[in-house]
UniProtKB/TrEMBL annotation:
The keyword Membrane does not apply. Residues 12-125 form the Thiamine pyrophosphate enzyme N-terminal TPP-binding domain. Belongs to the TPP enzyme family. It comes from Diospyros kaki. Gene3D superfamilies: 3.40.50.970, TPP-binding domain. Its cofactor is Mg(2+); thiamine diphosphate. This is 2-hydroxyacyl-CoA lyase. GO terms for biological process: fatty acid alpha-oxidation. It is an enzyme of class 4 (lyase).
Length: 571
């Protein structure tokens, strides 16, 4: 557009930054470079906090987790071509976990596309499998509308990933401020709002409550969709008024405290194997829940599914499906129950059976945990970490967990008492998420302690981001379970160690006793090397109270874990 003397000009970079800030974006994650550096600096000038990473993969994982933790789209900014491809890691992770996120990538000049321009790629086609909605402004005037559309689509219906493509020529166009303002107002008024209500009606709620009321062995299962919906109050009211035992999925842990007397976590096999009616709230009947099928579940179990996604419910074909927001539906269910209350009570045979089994399993585990095994197995350090985390009190630290054995053992030993305090490999079993998730958690809840408990392999994916922790002074303590490899040690049988490269290290192994704690010291952070209970206790006490970036390198016996954690059947 022609310059106009009465109103100052702004370019495409400033237009993008302005639209993002106006749409409520307050944090961005990414890696800058041609052509998007100025998008980042302009955004900072608009009051957006930009967290600059070393690697788009890790920044993308951060953006996806930020979306989950805050309920607002996490935004990842990358350069074109390879930057966009690295960013796909985060976008796909958001898509699979149903978390709101927007990937924004610069792209090559529109007129040079197709003749080998710098970092050229058809990015709209590339992101397609992982994007709910993609937009590409072809002129500066389309920027505000595109920005508002991608952000709106990321949170509407089932949350997920969206994509915004920014051609470099569009970023270099200019427009007058007055015209920009007009376009921003138009974009704001046409913004798709998140679905306020589902399609569920009173008769469906009555039917759900009637099924639960007449069940002999009812169970409620909830997952990270319920956590995303902030359904904790409704869930607590439901469990406490009906006395129905509950089972959280790994990331549903903490919606109700793991220590609650109706928690069936330690009696999981019994609870899912024997329940006759299961109310499943914001959790998919996918591999994590054994597809809702025998032999883990009884073949006669009646499922009542609560999900924001109609397609999800239709695919699972449950006895009853309630489409809508988990918090709202729990409120409707609680209201219906209040009209004619029922409660199983402690002496109900089902409640008693679950409680008995839980107590047995817990005391068996406690006996294992009570031993101080040195060199460390997984259990001894996990117990010490559990107690240190519990000692922090409220607000409870946000826990990030990944790795095979480390994540498996951590899931059963570590105790979650508050909602949305556990981030792990999730639906996709994504490894390498740890550092990104830690940074997202620290940025989403300023001041709150973040603790990662991860394997050396998970840590290694993006260990360079310890510099990012130090640079932004984030209160993150990374505990590395260092067993010298993926699953730990060289597990090959003697028949397998043959051929010309037999003297190479095993594909599962890393340098034994690597000094991971020194990586963070290179940037001025605090590193600890520990191998005994007292060393671990003092490193935790010091780093938790300092609330400064730290890495605790915990040396674990390389033969303590098992291959694939507890997923050998998939290997
Ligand atoms: P988990 O891994 O904890 O089992 P999943 O990611 O498999 O959880 O399932 C979460 C489900 O929650 C998804 O099917 C998603 O559509 C759904 N969901 C997302 N937001 C909401 C919401 N606000 N209310 C109800 N369900 C939701």
């Amino acid at each position: 557009s022609k310059p106009d003397n009465s109103s100052p000009l702004l370019d495409g970079n400033a237009m993008v930054a302005k639209a993002l800030a106006r749409a409520g974006v307050d944090r961005m994650f990414g890696v800058v470079g041609i052509p998007v550096t100025s998008v980042a600096t302009r955004a900072v000038a608009m009051g957006v906090r930009f967290i600059a990473f070393h690697n788009e993969q890790s920044a993308g994982y951060a953006a996806s987790a930020y979306g989950y933790l805050t309920g607002r789209p996490g935004v990842l900014l990358t350069v074109s071509g390879p930057g966009c491809v690295h960013g796909l890691a985060g976008l796909s992770n958001a898509a699979v976990n149903a978390w709101p996120m927007v990937l924004i990538s610069g792209s090559c000049d529109q007129k040079d596309f197709g003749r080998g321009d710098f970092q050229e790629l058809d990015q709209i086609a590339t992101v397609k499998p992982f994007s709910k909605f993609s937009a590409k402004p072809t002129s500066i005037k389309e920027i505000p509308n595109c920005v508002f559309q991608v952000l709106g689509h990321a949170v509407s219906g089932r949350p997920g990933g969206c994509y915004l493509d920014l051609p470099s020529d569009v970023l270099h166009e200019t427009i007058t401020e007055s015209e920009a303002e007009k376009l921003l107002l138009e974009a704001e008024s046409g913004w798709p709002q998140p679905n306020a209500i589902g399609t569920v009606g009173c008769s469906e709620i009555e039917a759900a409550v009637s099924l639960l009321r007449h069940a002999e062995r009812p169970l409620i299962v909830f997952g990270k969709g319920a956590a995303f919906a902030r359904a904790e109050n409704g869930l607590r009211k439901f469990v406490e008024s009906t006395g129905i035992p509950f089972l959280p999925t790994p990331m549903g842990k903490g919606l109700l405290p793991d220590t609650h007397e109706l928690a069936a976590t330690a009696a999981r096999s019994l609870a899912i194997g024997k329940c006759d009616v299961a109310l499943v709230v914001g959790a998919r009947l996918n591999w994590l829940l054994h597809f809702g099928e025998p032999p883990k579940w009884s073949k006669d179990v009646k499922f009542i599914l609560v999900d924001i996604s109609k397609e999800e419910i239709e695919m699972r074909n449950p006895c009853l499906g309630l489409v809508g927001d988990a918090a709202k539906i729990m409120e409707m269910i609680n209201k219906e129950i209040k009209n004619d209350p029922f409660c199983l009570g402690k002496s109900h045979p089902w409640v008693e059976a679950i409680s008995k089994k839980s107590k047995e399993n817990v005391s068996r585990m406690e006996a294992q945990l009570a031993k101080d095994v040195v060199p460390f197995n997984f259990l001894t350090p996990m117990r010490i970490i559990r107690d240190a985390i519990l000692g922090v009190g409220s607000p409870a630290p946000i826990l990030v967990s990944e790795g095979a054995n480390t994540m498996d053992v951590g899931r059963s030993v570590l105790i979650q008492t508050e909602p949305r305090t556990r981030l792990d490999a999730g639906t996709w079993g994504t490894m390498g998420v740890g550092l990104g998730y830690c940074i997202a958690a620290a940025v989403a809840s300023p001041g709150r302690l973040v603790v990662a408990v991860e394997g050396d392999s998970g840590f290694g994916f993006s260990a360079m981001e310890v510099e990012t922790l130090v640079r932004y002074k984030l209160p993150v303590v990374i505990i590395v379970f260092n067993n010298g490899g993926v699953y730990g040690g060289d597990r090959r049988s003697s028949e397998e160690i043959t051929g010309p490269y037999k003297d190479d290290p095993a594909p599962t192994s890393f340098v034994p006793d690597s000094a991971y704690h020194k990586l963070i010291e290179a940037f001025g952070g605090h590193g600890y090397l520990v191998g005994t209970p007292s060393e671990l206790q003092s490193a935790l006490a010091e780093s938790f109270s300092a609330r400064k970036p730290a890495v605790i390198n915990v040396i674990i016996d390389p033969y303590a874990g098992s291959e694939s954690g507890r997923m050998q059947h998939k290997n």
